[in-house]
Amino acid sequence: MKTALFLLPVSLFAQWLDFHTPGIPRTADGKPNLSAPAPKTPDGKPDLTGVWRPEANPYFYDVIQELKDEAIFRPAAEALFLKRVAEFRRDDPQTHCLPRGPSDILFGGQLYRIMQSPAVIGLLYEGGGNYRQIYMDGRKLPRDPNPTWRGYSIGHWEGDTLVVQSAGFNDRTWLDRVGHPHSEELRVTERFRRVDFGHIQFQVTFDDPQTLTRPLTISLKVNYAADTDMLENECNENNTDTGHLSGQETARAKLSPAVLARYAGVYEFRGAAGAGGAGTFFPRTQTVSLVNGQLFMNALPLIPQSETTFETETARIEFVTDARGAVTHLVLTAAGGDNRYDRKR
Amino acid sequence: MPVITRTQLLAIILAAPALQAQWLNYPTAGVPRLPNGQPNLSAPAPRTPDGKPDLSGLWEPATPAASSTFLSGDPPGDRQFSGIGVNVPGGLPLQPWAAELVETRRAGEFKDAPDTYCLPLGLVQMHVHPYPRKLVQVPGLLVILFERDTTYRQIFTDGRPLPVDPQPGFNGYSTGKWEGDTLVVKSIGFKDGMWLDTKGSPLTSAAKVTERFRRPSFGKLEIEITIDDPKAYTKPWSIQVHQALALDTDLIEFVCLENEKDLAHLVGK
To answer: Please, are residues B92 and B202 in contact by the beta-carbon 8 Å criterion?
Structure first.
């Protein structure tokens, strides 16, 4: 969905607050000492307090990174996924400034603040200025919770790891931006372990027997964001996009299997590691495959727009041929510009 | 009968589910009790380990919802929600252009109220909003979690100064420090065009807002708000906000934009 493309730069690049976080360990030259020991609260528990930024990762966009793993979705869920793909993800709640739900915490580059008090831990998200409460007072998950966008969360300590269990989600949020669904039966388990001052090892498991054949686990590094802070980010301010969303199946070009088959192959990102660009959001190796008449780039379904151009979540893909008609490379256009992937096989 | 404006009607209709649907039944921990087991709301305010009053708790307007009625034209709770200057002697000292703006907003049936568009209301109106809010006070930071649209506001108490040229925002930028048992919070960096109440009293980017938070007893929170906005007002003015502790309940999720179908039907100019 194009809206996502335009919303991204704000939270990723606008951290211009020039500010020194008080009270954090610093090295002799005044830089934050991110490898100092993790702090503890007066009761001896790890103190997760601070502003955090998840590492750049592809899971916020697609929880599935290899096409074979798509099979963990049950047939009805997969059908709903492909329907959302065909509608160009018009109904992604994020596009309509509705909460992102359980995937909010996977958004690489989005800052969030953890505020820790003995009875409740607050997660304040930069995007949309919304929050979650994690109850630490020993209560149980409610038996029949009111289904909500963000669920109901309780936490406890297992050694130095904060374990957060959540339930009571509605089924309107999406597991990711490409459109994988979940049901109201979704249970989420998050594990936060602060390994040193500057780093949290984070793991999230989505368990939803109605949608998934087995639980799905994602691991991420989360980095302390020193000397900056969250900015106000009001999604609904000047939202003029939604009136222009078509989501019509007619926007799809009809291509023959023979044409689609020409693009199947392995493509490698041309660009230095860490150079930014596509490497930030998309894998450096893209495997394009044709399954049952549907073209995929890794696990992302590609929707034909013309004989050589395709649409996918947050990106447009163009396949480029040489004078003899052989496909030499693809150009992935996303926030930040064009990214060239050379064909290897 | 006073005219009920569309915005007020909307507010009343929206307020009803949240006020009556606080069905979460979980006892609040750490409440002082009288010998008969009832909560002792006039007990002293709790304190944090560093000896400061602890403002943490779930708070709602001290004016019971039942005391205002549908027919009064006011939404339940604090009357300042619909008229921020209702208790200011002589009314709000509006600059002439600001008085014209208020009249224009009235003539437009308050159609452009930020609430109508599910936009943030800003820190002043949120203090008098009928929905509950939770204050969470930790070292270096006071956060207010609002039920209205599940948003938060940060007040930094870690000694940082106010920024020199902040990015204008709905909530501005807030720092606080203790003067005795009063937390004094100063905020700047507001967007132009904001509303302080449902009647459209303005706030501009020139505004400096000072809030003085006191918790005189376990069950009471008092906030004195001073608005110094020379662009919109001829002199600074102050209001008092009284909030009461809400026990054995909690915030529930409220997503303003969920199922929003009203905008297309507004008729104001």
So the answer is: no
